[in-house]
Specification:
The protein has three helices and 23 strands. By secondary structure, the protein is mostly beta strands.
Length: about 350
């Protein structure tokens, strides 16, 4: 039986009630609803402050949580007013805060700003287009930023994705643009890619199509693992060498196989987990790494994310596509809203 390619697949790690206990201590509210006023948060243990990307106000909000039962707003750093664009992400370590800021023209190179825990911006460097998630290496010597490089809505401009490696080992006072190395994907243009890696943007090369989303760094600060969400893959980065060494396609989850059932409808008013002729794409967003018993592991949050732009979109509902009657003799039933009809699938990968 032919199968659909599902455009999102979620995963979670669960613990029993005996394993973990959570207790709310306090909270802080921006009093802004449904406009992304508290998106990314980074905690600095040295100063006991929380740095929050406020997308609505285009600021970094600094919260004092020395008393975690009463978080209070300490300062608000206005990013757009000073730099013409919004912050996308923030990271903190030992009183030093790094902020990823996209350019006013999102397809142009962005920047990473460094500020102290009080919100004083000390310096900054230029990185790739649409810098998003960023992280300090465990040894504190570098900051890595995922330059997502999303295309313009009309796909007239599609910059190349990359990861910038910022060497801060000499301190931010001595930081120069020459301390930035950018790992690119150009070497994959025109060469065969591992089977299963999705490259499908209009007229896009692999370097343009790869959009780094999130980064995890190994405990020895030598290797980074970078999610390529829309491409359903992970790229391996040699930090010292400043280049990508491997592309790892994640493949599919076969929802027709035993144990891989899913509830495919939000219109049947019941929980109905069962097998379907569907292949799930993992398409991870966040990623983390850890070691246990001498082995390294990666954990991914498989958000799933399709490309939907003015000039190009891959999403289709099963109810709206033409199914091959020979492969799907029960197509009429499958396309009902209480079965697969409401399911969003990829028009790029789906075999209809």
């Amino acid at each position: 039986m032919r199968q659909f390619a599902l455009a999102a697949l979620a995963a979670c790690i669960c613990a029993t009630a005996q394993d973990i206990k959570l207790e709310k201590l306090g909270s802080y509210a921006t009093n802004v609803f449904n406009r992304g006023a508290a998106e990314i948060a980074a905690y600095d243990a040295r100063t006991r402050r929380l740095f929050v990307v406020n997308g609505d106000a285009a600021t970094i909000d600094i919260l004092d949580i020395a008393d975690p039962t009463k978080p209070t707003l300490f300062n608000r750093v206005r990013i757009r007013e000073r730099y013409g664009a919004s912050a996308n992400s923030v990271a903190a370590r030992n009183g030093l805060v790094a902020v990823a800021v996209e350019a006013a023209n999102r397809q142009q190179p962005g920047s990473v700003l460094f500020m102290d825990a009080n919100g004083r911006i000390m310096t900054g460097v230029t990185v790739g287009a649409v810098p998003d998630m960023l992280t300090f290496t465990p040894d504190g010597s570098k900051v890595l930023v995922a330059n997502e490089a999303e295309p313009s809505p009309n796909y007239a401009t599609d910059p190349e994705g990359s990861v910038s490696i910022i060497d801060i080992s000499k301190g931010t006072d001595a930081l120069q643009q020459s301390d930035v190395r950018t790992a690119e994907f150009k070497k994959y243009n025109g060469t065969p890619l591992p089977p299963g890696i999705r490259v499908f943007g209009p007229r896009a090369t692999p370097a343009q199509d790869f959009e780094p989303e999130y980064i995890a760094v190994s405990a020895d600060s030598g290797t980074a693992y970078v999610t390529l969400q829309e491409n359903n893959a992970i790229a391996v980065l040699d930090i010292k060498g400043g280049e990508f060494t491997r592309l790892m396609p994640l493949g599919f989850k076969d929802h027709s196989a035993p144990g891989n059932g899913l509830d495919a409808s939000d219109r049947d008013s019941k929980i109905d987990i069962r097998n379907w002729p569907v292949l799930g794409l993992y398409m991870p967003d966040a990623i983390a790494s850890f070691r246990s018993n001498g082995r390294s592991y990666l954990i991914t949050a498989n958000e799933g994310d399709t490309r939907e732009y003015t000039a190009f979109g891959e999403e289709r509902r099963v109810s709206a596509v033409q199914l091959d009657a020979g492969q799907f003799p029960n197509a009429a039933d499958l396309q009902k809203p209480e079965q697969l009809g409401r399911l969003t699938v990829s028009a790029v990968n789906a075999d209809l």
